[in-house]
Amino acid sequence: MSIDNLRSALPEYAKDQKLNLGSLTRTTELNEQQLWGTLLASAAATGNDTVFAEISEEAKEHLSDEAFEAALGAATVMAMNNVAYRAKHFLGEDYTNVKFGLRMNIIAKPGVEKADFELWSLAVSTINGCENCVVAHDKTVREEGLTKEQVWEAVKVAAVIQAVAQTVQIEAAR
User: Fold this and answer.
1) pLDDT tens-digit readout, 58-116
2) What is the predicted pLDDT for the residue at 156?
3) Which residues does the UniProt record annotate as the domain Carboxymuconolactone decarboxylase-like (predicted)?
4) Tag placement on the chain: N or C end, fewer CB within 10 Å?
5) Rounded distance, CA 76 to CA 95, Å?
6) CATH number of 3-173: 1.20.1290.10, 3.40.50.1220, 3.30.470.20, 1.25.40.10?
7) Cα 169 to Cα 17: distance, rounded to the nearest angstrom
8) In the predicted model, what is the mean pLDDT of residues 19-28?
């Protein structure tokens, strides 16, 4: 199971995604842990079983057990936070000071470097469409020393993995 399997399964109309997958896995902007954690967290965020299976199997070759679990943790905690923060934003000023009341301890102790976990959280938040979370995680990773090019690379990974997941879903339904 691998990204190569995903690339070869994509139809002609998704040729751009084949090319994007190839170039993103050869990035020089992100280190190996950042790249594979972003790929894994993004694959989990898509909710597509095939994409998750293919990427997670290969990610095990590139990530420590701690980083693998942290990437999955970023996907799950952001699944919750992205919904809650969007709702708080939609509901307006009356909810600004409402106690959040949700556990999210993994953010404080993810088991990997803070910048990497926050980068994965940013990628997942991008897929989930939570503006507040994307902006907050961008601020944190930039304070932790990542560049705008590294942030954008993670956004590109998230975008391509989401497009691949949609293509796989279309093909399964055809």
Assistant:
1) 999 999 999 999 999 999 999 999 999 999 999 999 998 898 899 999 999 999 999 99
2) 98
3) 101-168
4) C
5) 24
6) 1.20.1290.10
7) 14
8) 92
